[in-house]
Design a protein that fits this description.
The chain is mainly alpha-helical. The protein has 3 helices and no strands. Residues 1-50 are annotated as: Disordered.
Length: 50
C-alpha cells in the first residue's frame, strides 16, 4: 500500500501545482482590466446591452 501511494503522491502534487498556475493566470487578467478605467465601463455597457 505504501509503495502504491508513493508513485501517486508525486502525480497529485504535480497536478496541484498546475492547478495553482491556472488559478494565478485567471486572476492576473481579471485585475488588470479592472484596474484600468476605460475597460470597466466598456465591459459594463456591453454586459448591459447583452
Amino acid at each position: 500500500m505504501t509503495p502504491s501511494f508513493y508513485p501517486q503522491y508525486p502525480s497529485y502534487k504535480a497536478q496541484a501545482r498546475r492547478s495553482q498556475t491556472a488559478v494565478h493566470r485567471n486572476p492576473c487578467p481579471a485585475p488588470l482590466p479592472s484596474s484600468l478605467p476605460p475597460p470597466p465601463p466598456h465591459l459594463s455597457g456591453l454586459r448591459i446591452t447583452g
